[in-house]
From TrEMBL:
InterPro entries: DUF899_thioredox (IPR010296), Thioredoxin-like_sf (IPR036249). It comes from Kribbella qitaiheensis. This is DUF899 domain-containing protein. Residues 246-256 have a biased composition (Basic and acidic residues). Residues 224-256 are annotated as: Disordered. It holds the Pfam family DUF899. It comes from the Bacteria.
Length: 256
């Protein structure tokens, strides 16, 4: 194992301060990127998708649970599997209490193609509590680019066609038997009963999303704090960080 160089405290401090400038530049660029994401236009979702959950059928607009925004994790769980994707399961293990999202008018849910009975059994086995629905019998997964099947919709993943993927070195998509699922995350904004698609990310775009702040950064409304750009998306839409109305529930599990 190759370890970092051992230096004196003063030498370390020089290196750390130099690196701090890179971190500050990255933070500034990330804030600009998040602001540009919030400036993206949105598309109205015309199809009235109906999913299956613990209480039976449920429409896409009802997944919001009355809130303004919905963040969907496209969890890889194909109908013939008895368990979800191990990598997606690793992501799910990082999901704790969702009040960091719900306090900002945002609901989180996972959606998979597997039948709900399999989802419910696997979810119970893993000890997860986040909402998770089945899209079986709908084209939701196909329409949002996480189930690839040319017989249903033209092949596209992460905004590249099959031909574009085949031109990339190391791509195995052309050899993979269809249909097959991949992971991603999609964001939606509700105005009354109209649902709008604001953003989707795939592949490594999900790498750093194991925290509420990073997830909320993907949405059109953002963290809903006064310093964010574009302005005008805070009043009445959610509580800013530090607001006394936010109740961060602490449980015994959080203390161990």
């Amino acid at each position: 194992m190759e370890l970092p160089e051992v230096v004196s405290r003063s030498e370390w401090l020089v290196a750390r301060k130099k690196f701090l400038q890179e971190e500050k530049e990255f933070t500034k660029r990330r804030d600009e990127l998040n602001a540009n994401r919030r400036r993206l236009p949105m598309v109205q979702v015309e199809q009235d998708y109906v999913f299956t959950g613990p209480d039976g059928s449920i429409r896409l607009v009802d997944l919001f649970q009355g809130r303004l925004q919905l963040v969907v994790y496209h969890f890889m769980f194909q109908p013939e599997w008895d368990a979800g994707c191990p990598n997606c399961s690793g992501f799910a293990d990082d999901i704790g209490h969702l009040n960091g999202l719900t306090d900002r008018a945002t609901t989180f849910a996972a959606i998979s193609r597997a039948p709900y009975e399999k989802i419910a059994a696997f979810k119970q086995r893993m000890g997860w509590t986040f909402p998770w629905y089945s899209s079986a019998g709908t084209t939701f997964n196909y329409d949002f680019g996480v189930t690839l099947d040319d017989s249903v919709v033209p092949f596209e993943y992460n905004y590249r066609t099959k031909r574009e993927w085949d031109q990339l070195s190391g791509s195995e998509f052309s050899q993979t038997e269809q249909p097959f699922d991949l992971h991603g995350m999609s964001c939606f904004l509700r105005t009354d009963d109209a649902v709008h698609h604001t953003y989707s990310t795939y592949g490594r775009g999900c790498d750093s999303l194991g925290f509420s702040g990073n997830v909320i950064d993907l949405t059109a409304l953002g963290r809903q704090e006064p310093w964010e750009q574009p302005s005008g998306r805070t009043t009445g839409l959610g509580a800013p960080a530090g607001d006394p109305s936010i109740t961060h529930r602490e449980t015994e599990e959080h203390c161990h």
